[in-house]
Write a structure and sequence with these properties.
CATH superfamily of the largest domain: DD-peptidase/beta-lactamase superfamily
Strand content: 15-25%
Structural class: alpha+beta
CATH class of the largest domain: Alpha Beta
CATH topology of the largest domain: Beta-lactamase
Order of helices and strands: EEEEHHEEEHHEEHHHEEEHEEHEEEEH
Number of helices: 10
Strand order of the largest sheet: 6-5-18-17-16-15
Distance between the termini: 25 Å
Shape: globular
Radius of gyration: 22 Å
Length: about 400
Amino acid sequence: MIMASSTIYRIDPRLFLRIWALRIPGIFIGIVMLIAVPFWDAGAQDRYFPPAGTDWVEKAPGESGLDEEGVKRAVDFALANENSVEHDLRIAILKGFSHEPYHHLAGPVRERGNPAGMIIKDGFVIAEWGDIHRADMTFSVTKSFLSAVAGVAWDRGLIRSTDDKLTDYVWDRTFDGGHNAKITWHHLLNQSSDWYGTLFGMEDWSDRPPRQGGIDDWRMRELHEPGTHYKYNDVRVNLLAYSLLQVLRRPLPQVLNEEIMAPIGASTTWRWHGYDNSFVMIDGLHMQSVSGGGHNGGGLFISTADMARFGLLFARNGSWNGRQLVSPEWIQKSVAPSEANPSYGYLWWLTGNGTNWENVPGHVYYAAGFGGNFIVVDRENDMVIVLRWIDGGKVGDFVQMVYRAMR
């Protein structure tokens, strides 16, 4: 870490040429003007962005407007409330989802580390604990990274509208049938599609089935109109990843790295895995369709520090040191309450509708994963909190402690 007590200012002015053409019969007049246009978000020139590598500037909590003792109590609380999930995540996954028929490990799994975390305020590290550079599984935190990749496709115009039906983009049998043909990107992104089918050998109904009933009841369930019923379901999230692969036509980890992770200075230790049988042919090349979590193994393996960089990108409205990586429009869509679940956006959880996180502003949103993995984003206060392996029932208490420490 680098200790500092003063803000670092970065100014990155860019210039570009703009050409106006005036056409008069028989005459062409070209006018070239040099226009100075800011390519950074408002206020970016006086914000600190951590450079690539481990030299992330650290400040005392008091320098960033937080009570030092309050922050220390929060860190001690996180360390004292480790998640009870086994360190051998093979056991943890198989035990945690043992009620699901046919559940099995289909992708890689890694033994987890110990509790870790970071609190970032105004871009600076004001607290860290544990091994923040260990790449661990993040389970469903992966979904929020997948949402960002969808944003890349949308920003590029490869997805014309989130209200477009998937049948316009995925031309195999995946969306055949009267029900599945109605499904839009919007439905997949907010988990309200109720898509039915089998993907990479996994049936949609076998993922988190009701506690009541049996296989016949689950398989023959009544389908809900797309957009009307929220259901957390990894098979359908994996379907979103598969559909994005059809659109982007490159492995999603490559897209994530080139468009987001490398520009924000993330390490090269993170990995995004799919399943052993989730390879598909795209343009004559074998590519793996990655998973949106570690429900069956796979998903994103990433360090606490790299998660914090990703969270800071969203706290800065998608802009990083003068470069817009994810559009503010996409972020706004991502954190808009869904019709079927007001506490859920585009694979992000929202706090403004029914959360029990008292004294936490309603504009805060977060990514959450099995085993106690979280990225909490507060754009208005320019703050990011990353938690690894905390007791899931205690995360709200921890976040409230941090906000109580704010002056």
